[in-house]
Amino acid sequence: MSATPTDVKFDALPDLRRPGVGVVKSSVWRMGTPERQRAAVEAIAEAWGSRDWPDVGLLSYSVYTGTDGDALLHYSQWESEAAYQDFFRRFRDGRNAEIDAAVPGIERVGLHSYELYRSGGPRPGDPRTPGCIVIVDVEFEGPDPERQRAWVDAVFEALDTDPDLPPGGISAHFHASLDGTRVLNYAEWESERAHIDALAAGSDGVGSKTPQWARVHDHPGVTGGGVTRYLPALTVTPAS
């Protein structure tokens, strides 16, 4: 059986609605400076592009540079948890060793496993291309899958009833962690400036001052979270 080459596309985004995704892995690398961010992206492209695709149930792997000049977000789609574990055993160390040799001192934090729960947008025929990815992390006090989904459903109710949503948002994809303790919203925006302007115009976040948004902000069991803006760096997939 012939090996499959790896296709590296810079500034590309994954298909969030790709069929066959059983689990999503997300993590962050702390790089310290924009120069180290760029060097790490180049090292990742080389480490993956110089090797054949690991045929273990990995569907796509994407990297994003934080606009804070520090973070690198990693977002990968897998057929199953078993597929990820197979990759971890057989392929991960060689790639990471090459990247670490090129950019020493990477701090790897917060690997979490998710499933995509609900998506909203883009509207049919929307021609806009996302220029910024906004990651909203929400943490809950202890595992409770029903509470995770109730919070996401409350967000959709608030979005659907908001009289004045900001114009720069394109789509939102809500992921529930498999351990029941957190939600990740992968939101596509026209640009970093569009999201900054939306925050400045909103009452608490990007929403209007409505009872529905108040229920989101005061939802029982939410203990923390954060918002980080990212720019697309690269996506790798098996070459077609």
From TrEMBL:
Protein name stated in the entry: Antibiotic biosynthesis monooxygenase
User: Any idea which UniProt keywords this protein has?
Assistant: Monooxygenase, Oxidoreductase
Identify a single GO molecular function assigned to this protein.
Answer: monooxygenase activity
Judging by the UniProt lineage, the source's domain of life is Bacteria
